[in-house]
Amino acid sequence: MNPGETTLVAISALRPGQEVNGVFACTRKDRLFTRNGSPYLALELRDRSGSIAARAFQRADELAGRFERGELVRVSGRVERFRDEPVLEVLDIARVSSSPGGPGSEGGEADPSRFLPTAYRDLDELDGFLEHLAREVTDRPLRSFLDGLVGDGALRAEWRRAPCTRAGHHAYLGGLLEHTVAVATLALEVCQLHVRLNLDLLLTAAIVHDLGRTREFTYGAEIGLSEEGRLLGHLVIGERMISERAGMLDDQRRLALLHCVLCHHGPASAPGGRFASVEALTLFRLNALDASVKGAFEHGLGSEGSRHLAPSAP
């Protein structure tokens, strides 16, 4: 293998005796000592297929200064067997950029999607569903508002990439798009059963209820929080994004939409602690339904996500 050549074999396929030169996520970094007192690095490296223990016995302190836990790193070394388990003996290691095509990424090899969990469902199909659902809105101002969002390529890329949470339901790349389509589909169906619901308002709110998630996260070896996400949270970010793009909406439509979005986690965030519309109550329940079902499948019936539907008085 040439010195600059990158190993594209997944971690789950690595075998003892194999030489490695590739980019991985570093999820553990400890400076330990051998029996004779020499320092070494004990690491864990990960990609979407799994993880592998790694050790650096030579130049441990020099190598330790090149990267931190939670970063993407380029590693060269050789896979050995230790106590019947494969271990990567590291010869060299350094951080790389996590921005596709950015400095150090070498043509996008450090794209976070190679290291972070991703949606099982086809994202192109989900994109198509999102466009179909937006076209179901017939109110002209609300439809114009949605057309502006759907037609924004940069926003759509973030909508497609973002998770819903970091450790709860839909905690993977593409999770936001999957959850958005699910809640909007439920909204469309419930309006067929309860015809007095304002379909245009509810469906628009369902499509944009988690819009703030598109700016809430950072992506590298792990899903992290942006500064905006840490300080404001997705509800406030979403309110700002909607307000910035809602110039075609009159006050009545804009306020009704914002009320639904800001209350989709429950009435506690509403003025007076009460829902002001049946559409806001409905969105809250539909959002909780999808989050609960997904949480139960991903984390079990006793998980926090599966308890989303606990009775809550409006």
Verbal overview:
- There is one protein chain.
- The protein has 314 residues and is an alpha+beta fold.
- The chain folds into two domains: 11-114, Beta Barrel (OB fold (Dihydrolipoamide Acetyltransferase, E2P)), CATH 2.40.50; 123-307, Hypothetical protein af1432.
- It is built from ten helices and seven strands.
- It has helices at residues 60-64, 123-135, 140-150, 153-161, 175-193, 199-208, 227-231, 233-245, 251-262, 278-299; strands spanning 19-33, 39-47, 50-56, 72-82, 85-95, 217-219, 223-225.
- A hairpin with a 5-residue loop joins strand 1 (19-33) and strand 2.
- Helix 2 runs antiparallel to helix 3 and helix 8 packs antiparallel against helix 9.
**Strand/helix succession:** EEEHEEHHHHHEEHHHH
How much β-strand is present in the residues? 15-25%
What's the Cα radius of gyration? Answer: 23 Å
The percent of residues in helical segments reads: 25-40%
Brief account:
The chain is α+β, with helices and mostly antiparallel strands and 314 residues long. The chain has helices at 60-64, 123-135, 140-150, 153-161, 175-193, 199-208, 227-231, 233-245, 251-262, 278-299, and strands spanning 19-33, 39-47, 50-56, 72-82, 85-95, 217-219, 223-225.
